[in-house]
Amino acid sequence: MPTLEVRDLRVRFGRTEALRGVTLELRPGVTGLVGANGAGKSTLIRTLVTLERPSAGQLVWDGQDVTRRPERLRRVLGYVPQEGGAYPQLTPTEFLQYMGAAKRLDARAVDAQIPELLDAVNLGAHARRPVGSFSGGMARRVLIAQALLGDPQLLILDEPSVGLDAEERLRFQALLRERARGTAVLLVTHLREDLDATADRLLTLEGGVITHEASEPRAARRPVRSPLVLTAAGVSRA
Ligand SMILES: Nc1ncnc2c1ncn2[C@@H]1O[C@H](COP(=O)(O)OP(=O)(O)OP(=O)(O)O)[C@@H](O)[C@H]1O
């Protein structure tokens, strides 16, 4: 089972130690990550997607130490960044082709997958319009689609559903649940509703360390009100 092991990860910016020894395992399924502003969520994500170099600690993918081999991780990775967007002059199809080339995926396989991905985020009817003419939520869905190119084994999602309307959020949640069956997903979000609908477990980051972990099968949490409550101190039971 493809697993990312994060061992005692530390990231320092000058005098600030943004991550102070994070240890966790990402297995197939959705791991939700919550934490207050400044807790270190973005730093953790940026390190996992190899944009930031750890000061100490290890990243182990599928049993192999990839800490100093970022290209190994990039090969299996899909990423929705918190900010940024598709090039406005490109259509979603062109942007996905561009991203496929950047990820060194086979061009024909990418072309074959694009219609399915655009349908999955309900943009099939807009494949020929430039992304610059899209609403914020539509542009966000283009980013979600590009993260799924090549069926990555590891998905890192930073506030992926910001700007999505109610219907599109439900579609996104269903897509994520379906993908997470064989894919390790890390979902950072402030949206409780997305966590309730998708997360198999919840991690709380505080001051650069994981302070709480709550594992609950989604099904057990969904029916009534969620038994998990997010408080300033982390995750607790109602
Ligand atoms: N490039 C940087 N240079 C210096 N300090 C940084 C840098 N990036 C993050 N930090 C510091 O590291 C700490 C963690 O920041 P980070 O952005 O990871 O938190 P976060 O949990 O993502 O917050 P938010 O919810 O506001 O996005 C903060 O103290 C922040 O000021």
TrEMBL record:
Family note: Belongs to the ABC transporter superfamily.
Keyword field contains DNA-binding: no
Source species of the chain: Deinococcus radiotolerans
Entry annotated with the keyword Hydrolase: no
This protein's UniProt keywords: ATP-binding, Nucleotide-binding, Transport
ABC transporter domain sequence ranges: 4-232
Pfam families: ABC_tran (PF00005)
The protein, known as: ABC transporter domain-containing protein
